[in-house]
Amino acid sequence: MIEETNTDRRTGSLEQELVLSSLESGQLAEAKKPFPRRTLGASQTLVLWFMRIYVLFMMAVVIYQIWSGAGN
Amino acid sequence: MNAITKMESMLHGMDARARQPVITHEDVDRAHDRALVSAARARGGKFSRLRLLWLLVGPGILVMLGENDGPSMISYAATGAQFGIGFFLPFIVLTFVMAIVVQEMTVRLAAVTQRGHAELIFDRFGPFWGWFAMIDLGLGNFLTLIAEFIAVRAGLGFFGVPPWAAVLSALTILYLALMTHRYWTWERLTLAAALFNLVFIPIALLTHPDWRSVGHALAGWKPLPGGLNKDVLLILLANIGATVTPWMLFFQQSATVDKGLTTRDIRYGRFDTILGATLASLAALGMVLATTPLFVHQMSATHLQAGEFAQALQPIIGRFGAALFALGIVEAGIVAAITISTSSAYAFGEVSRRPHSLNLPFAEGKAFYSVVFLCAAAAAAIVVIPGLPLVKVVMIVNVIAVLAMPPALVFLFMLVNDKEIMGSFVSPRWANLLATTVVVVLVTAGVLFGLSVIAPAAFDRFASQVTRTLSAL
């Protein structure tokens, strides 16, 4: 077990003071809690699905281009 | 004091301790940086503003100069060599305006929510959509990292450095930057390295550009050289992908949180982004101007790569200029390797809820630092495998970035307009309009690219129609 010295304790409390005076409460790493999940409307879900299909399709196009280029 | 009173006071002390927030090492480091910001703000006056600027800029410049990476600089070099300046100088400026619009949103998101981009997507949209975003980011980042090491290899190859030594030296620099275990030191070291990107401005001056033509190109936007065709479309996509990519969103938001910017600092975050975009666009324009002599003298530059551009320019800019060019490519690759692998590590830490900060000592941030280093090491290892089609990777990286950007922008757009987390900091209508325009432009460019690959004849018909219409205007 590491014994805490007076200097450690003083430094610790000084650091705590510095942190609490310099950072906003939302900036403390351990204090951050996940935000609640949002409810997506039909149009928002549709846009997200459209984008997903778009990107998958485009990736297939890129793979096809590489494959057909390799054949040439 | 009786036993009951003693016990009560002990319990009171325990309760007070339990209520005290847990303070971590990264909080202490960040607090030291923020104390300097508070002191500068309290002082007031003109110099304090300059001091605040010095303290608060960083993520914006890093992200913009970081995106002037190996593949991007090669794309700009190819642009100048194949198409000259008429259409592309103003086009490149426009892509940086697009980048400012997009990246400013990440500054606001970071300052208001104090969360990274990946974390916010997972929290607000759930893991189903979150994992999609992470796969896009992970794949794009890994391919881009490979391209960065290709650039380093090609740039150092100009000086006769063998590939394994080139890649190893880039990895060593990345490792040394990480070992500072301090966001501020890491940021300043990487910024110093990133500013070397501006070397393409003196290189451009060595080619003695025709400033009147440059002025004409910037003031009056000339039509596409040779009209719209497949080659032009590819270079357009490469230039867009050289300025706006998904990793930039994740990096700037996480780095802004790590730096500790709050809502009071948003103005400075905006300035940081605009300054970064200005510096990066100057370097990009410098690169286009530097290689334009190859276009003017009609030298074939279609298949030139980084080191070969330096060799091709040597008769025009001399051995010293060519060496600077090669070093510029090396810098572009190394700085981007640092920032891109850091963006992957931030995202990994945010999603896995592990500590993720450049202020972490190694013992507390093993997972974070390991992701940065392992991503880079894996990409570096691929680059030294003999016989791999490295040229194709470089060509395709920016195209993939453009294709993966619209979904990333939709998440960003929805988050920055989310009143529950953003409150009064939601985007104004004009910003939404601009952001929507960016998404539409990117989707259109992607669809045209798809059409050119799947149905080339239909694309040719469409392209010649567009060319006719544009020349009639």
What are the key terms here?
heterodimer; A: mainly alpha; 2 helices; B: 20 helices; globular
Folded structure, characterized:
The complex is a heterodimer of chains A (72) and B (473). With 72 residues, chain A is an all-alpha fold. Chain A contains two helices and no strands. The longest helix of chain A has 30 residues, at 42-71. Chain B starts with a helix and ends with a helix. The longest helix of chain B is centred in the last third of the chain and has 47 residues, at 306-352. Chains A and B meet through α1 and α2 of A and α2, α7, α17 and α19 of B.
Concise overview:
Chain A is mainly alpha-helical and 72 residues long. Chain A has helices spanning 6-22, 42-71.
Distance between the termini of chain B: 95 Å
| Element pattern of chain B in H and E | HHHHHHHHHHHHHHHHHHHH
Give the strand content of chain A.
under 5%
**SSE topology string of chain A:** HH
Q: Please tally the helical runs of chain B, counting DSSP H or I stretches of 4 or more residues.
A: 20
Low-confidence stretches of chain B: none
If you compute it from the alpha carbons, what radius of gyration of chain B comes out, rounded to the nearest whole angstrom? 24 Å
Query: How much helicity do the residues of chain A have?
Result: 55-70%
CA radius of gyration of chain A is 27 Å
- DSSP summary, beta strand count of chain A: 0
Q: Report the span from N to C terminus of chain A.
A: 69 Å
Name the shape of chain A in a single word.
Answer: elongated
Question: Which pair of chains has the greatest number of interface residues, and how are they split between the two chains?
Answer: A-B, 41 and 51 residues
Please give the largest β-sheet of chain B.
none
Structural class of chain B: mainly alpha
